[in-house]
Design a protein that fits this description.
The complex is a heterodimer of chains A (597) and B (347).
Chain A: H1 3-8, H2 10-38, H3 64-99, H4 102-116, H5 120-131, H6 135-162, H7 165-172, H8 177-213, H9 225-234, H10 241-268, H11 270-280, E1 303-315, E2 321-333, E3 337-341, H12 348-355, E4 363-366, E5 369-372, E6 375-376, H13 383-392, E7 393-396, H14 400-403, H15 410-421, H16 426-439, H17 445-448, H18 458-470, E8 476-480, H19 488-505, E9 508-513, H20 516-522, E10 525-530, E11 533-539, H21 543-546, H22 550-557
Parallel strand pairs in A: 3-9, 3-10, 7-8, 8-9
Antiparallel strand pairs in A: 1-2, 1-4, 1-5, 5-6, 10-11
Chain B: H1 10-30, H2 35-64, H3 69-74, H4 80-89, H5 96-109, H6 122-158, H7 165-180, H8 183-197, H9 210-239, H10 242-249, H11 254-292, H12 297-307, H13 310-338
Helix pairs in contact in B: 2-13, 6-9, 6-11, 7-9, 8-9, 8-11, 9-11, 11-12, 11-13, 12-13
The chains are: A alpha/beta (597), B mainly alpha (347).
Subcellular location (chain B): Cell membrane
GO biological process, one term (chain B): transmembrane transport
Keywords (chain B): Cell membrane, Membrane, Transmembrane, Transmembrane helix, Transport
Amino acid sequence: MSPRKRFLNPIAISAIAGSALLLFVAVAGPTIWGEAATTTDVSSRLLGASAAHPFGTDELGRDILARVLVATRLTLLLTLGATAIALCGGIVFGLVASILPKHPRRLFTGLLDILLAFPWLLMVLFFTVIWGATATGAMLAIGFAGIPSFARLVYNLAASVSGRDYVRAARVVGVGPIGVLLRHVLPNIANPFFVNAAATASVTLLSFAGLSFLGLGVQAPEYDWGRMLQEGILRIYVNPLAALGPGLAVVLAGLVFTMVSEAVAGSRGAGLRAVRARAAGAVTISARRRELVAETGEPAGDVVAEIRDLRIAFATADGGTIERVRGVDLTVARGEVVGIVGESGSGKSLTAMALAGLLGDDAIVTTSAHTFAGIDMTRAPSPAERARLGVELGMIFQDPLTSLNPALTVGRQLTEVPEVHMGMRPKEARARAADALDAVGIPNAAQRLKQYPHEFSGGMRQRAMIGMAMTGRPRLIVADEPTTALDVTVQRQVMGVLHRAQEETGAAIVFISHDIALVSAFCDRVIVMKDGRAVETLDARRIREDARHPYSKALIACLPDMNSDRTRPLPVIPPELVPEALDETHDDAHDDREVTV
Amino acid sequence: MTTTPPLATADVVDTTTAALAARAEERRLRRGLTPRTAFLLRRLGRLVVSLAVVIMASFLLMYLVPGDPVRAALGQSATPELVEATRIQLGLDKSMPEQFLRFIGGLFTGDLGTSVRLQRPVADVIGQRFPTTLLLAVLAFVIAVVGALPAGIGAAVLARSGRRRGLSMAVSAVLGILIAVPSFLLAVGLISLFAVRLGWLPAAGWGAPADAVLPVIALAIGPMAYLVRIVQVEMLAVLDTTYMTTARAKRLPRRLIHLRHALPNIVTATLTVGGMILAGLTAATVLIEAVFAIPGLGSIMVSSVGAKDYPMVQGVVIVYALIVLGVNLVVDVILATIDPRSSITEG
């Protein structure tokens, strides 16, 4: 993002404008309003709000608005002073801690953590006893109370940076610890540091207001917003603005500091936002595609699931849409194993999720027909249909570490479908779940059911997922890259389990993978997807011979076999066939669908 | 020749962690401890160290005051006789090790010394005022949690995946403001509206149940808004996880999906923040008690700080520290009990 753009976002503009205003009032306030703030007038004491005195007057007849404006200077000076103490102390302690040897370092961070457990205000009060209830004492107290959290922040930042490769490299070439700190660590922690510094200033301002309000900060005849608040609240029935005025000043100034912090933080996320902005400028097509939601009326017969002209689009930030799946037809016969291959972003997983009716509300899904086992999936299912979907449609996801609920026992998760949808009693459901675990080759199933997912290895969790699908009466199992996150040995075992599950239940399987070798070994039929379209359907046994589409051929050519010449580099997909980046503009979004599956 | 690196191998990582856990387990068994006992012992150890730091700090309080602490407390106009009498009362005429032993001994027998300003035992004053502060903090905490859970979950479920953008922006703006306004300023606003303008509730005082309404609201709103945001963010993250898709794939009723599958997964974060809030509330009561003229622990703390009444400050600081440390301990123990993955098993 260009510097110009960075400063043109609303938060940055308000932050700059707010800071400028605060600065102006702080510098010029005492000169402009100083007289009104100090002129006593016994005849006009304790007045309410009026045109002459918008916030009324105090017990000596001084204008409260003028006093609020004049107090800006002292309030800000004390706030910045305390923040500076916290920052300097935090930097020194944090950086020193980061270069200490192991044991003193642990002692130090342990002490910091103990100090951090206490609310800031308590520490401030403690320090106030030491330095006294004066403006300087309060500034020292608030500043010192802020040191531990800042030291911890600096230490964490420095520790995270010093683990990085370029810092290690600097050490290897003989740069000393101080040199590493100054040249490599400090510049790299500057940004998060300033974000937190501005946020700390905001908290400091509020603490100061609180302390002066308690009578432990600024003392008469000096006054800051906190002390004005203390005076105002005694007379809140006479003139509420005497208390609300300074309170409002505190809130507004706090808001300015927060916005500065946000603006600095925002400039860091510039890269991310720039990416999003570019994506927004990409393909924008209308979502009005809901033309022919025709009733198929076709009896379920040999077809388990069918989806026609599937299109999936997502809304972009600028109100347009971007299409990720562009007209896919898919029919799954009873007991058939269909593979879908393609690279990341080809739309294969989206297609599988749409087939199972599990896409989120953010996806704009249109089809001309979508049925599963006689259920029209384009409408909201009836309760009976929901139960059938739960029982007859199983899902297996890519990462077994995240697809089981970590807070529930495996047993709880495997008994749900039998209990909720099949009307089984807990005991029967448990027996069924144990049978399912047994069927996927997990020994000691009854004991295993009492365990939590984190007590299972990755391969076992994926087996448990397959078992979960088998607790119902699956007619279709959608397996979305079920072995990608597993290592090769475990992958083979899981494929074996999936294969047995298919044989035992007679369920059809839609198997999503980027691994064309795996797919062709496991499936009856293979669909090749690219850029949201199905480019080719192949008989799995004749995949090498039948492939016509250049992309399929390229994929297959990348497969080494026993006859591959090992002296030559492996083939790669030619650049013109690499799937297009998703946020690039296409003109051909509507035409040339190569094949109908 | 290029080779594809092996894909992320969850099992390998798993084995390593499992091996580490097994080794830690072995060490514990050698000491004859179950994981839970070991965790509790470790946690108690930290509590003792923290408490020791607090006790040391409060003991050293008088030594940290620049110059003569007695003179600083009594002012320049005090007679030498009074200064000397106070010095003896504070025990400053004894040697430092002797003072320290007496201080520690006093803590164990519940003798926190005598307030210089009130000339009453510190323990009595604290015992008298503690229930008020506790009531304020606990009421505010309960209201904050009870209000925040449904609000946060509701906001997350309604605004999930970019739906109802207007609503979620309005919610986050209101929450942002409520979090940013400190409780004592909010209290001033509440007083001017409900006490001054509408006359519904008293502006200050303590005794009748109505007196507690505005202080508790002022205390509760900020933490509640913060907790709503935490719950909402956590819930949004949980709703987007694969295991929630698994739950949806089972076509479970919404009630089960949200209460059985989602709720337990936000408990950890909610409880952690809840503990911080409760600890923070005890500090916030200091300011709220000042606004509403409530005779609690906070108001005695403030007046003692101003008057440099060292024994009183020491006593209140230790009590506050006990509350904060106790809350942290309770939260950790609850987390360890309900969350199957929590730190119990970590070495």
